[in-house]
Write a structure and sequence with these properties.
Length: about 240
């Protein structure tokens, strides 16, 4: 996002009206209207349990926003800023993010554990340092995403597309990476102990230098052209 971009200011009353009209639109009411919050300044906004399916939040600033229980399925958050946003809380239903558009979004250092990102669009998103433990990223598109140092322990990335993604130092212990594509990705010194890599693809010079594959399931995995220098494959099978 451009540093010169002027965000659209929205009052709490205006936001409530937009959300009310969107809820009616979802119910196919004549008075309803799809929420257009493109480039809106929503810093610190209370969006708990908000129904935002298919809403347009492209370029919105959601820094510190409360999104517990919000439904963001199929919403467009391309270029959105979610730094410091709260998407989960003990005892509260986590936000739903299936098929969401988060291309280029800043999700660094967020707690995204146990969330569902099935078929989500996360191309070039910044997820460095994020906690994605037990998250469901089945079929997610993560081309060029930055996952450096992210925690993906026991996460599901089955069939995910991670071409040119940066997973240096990421924790993928016991994760399901079966059928995932890692062409030209950087997994230097990543932890894949006990991970399921069946039929995963690491072609096109994927960097696996110093990666820990100990006890991982690698049946059918393609390592053609990958850099496996100093990689640990002990008990991998």
């Amino acid at each position: 996002m451009s540093g010169e971009l002027k965000m659209k200011q929205i009052t709490s009353d205006e936001l409530k009206e937009i959300l009310d009209k969107h809820a009616k639109w979802l119910r196919k009411k004549d008075s309803g209207e799809c929420a257009n919050l493109k480039e809106a300044d929503l810093k610190g906004a209370n969006l708990e349990n908000a129904k935002l399916e298919n809403a347009n939040l492209e370029g919105a600033d959601l820094t510190g926003a409360r999104l517990w229980g919000a439904n963001l399925n199929c919403a467009n958050l391309k270029n959105a800023i979610l730094k410091g946003a709260d998407l989960t809380d003990e005892g509260i239903r986590p936000a739903s993010l299936d098929e969401i558009h988060l291309e280029d979004a800043d999700l660094s250092d967020l707690d995204l554990s146990f969330l569902s990102f099935i078929d989500a669009h996360l191309e070039d998103a910044n997820l460095s340092g994020a906690n994605l433990r037990c998250a469901d990223l089945t079929g997610a598109r993560l081309w060029g995403a930055n996952l450096k140092g992210a925690n993906l322990e026991e996460a599901c990335l089955k069939g995910a597309f991670l071409r040119e993604a940066n997973l240096e130092g990421a924790n993928l212990r016991s994760a399901d990476l079966s059928e995932a594509y890692f062409g030209a990705a950087n997994l230097k010194k990543a932890n894949l102990k006990g991970a399921n890599l069946e039929n995963a693809n690491f072609e096109d010079d994927a960097n696996l230098e110093g990666t820990d594959f100990s006890a991982a399931k690698i049946n059918g995995a393609n390592f053609k052209g990958a850099n496996l220098e100093k990689a640990n494959l002990k008990n991998a099978k």
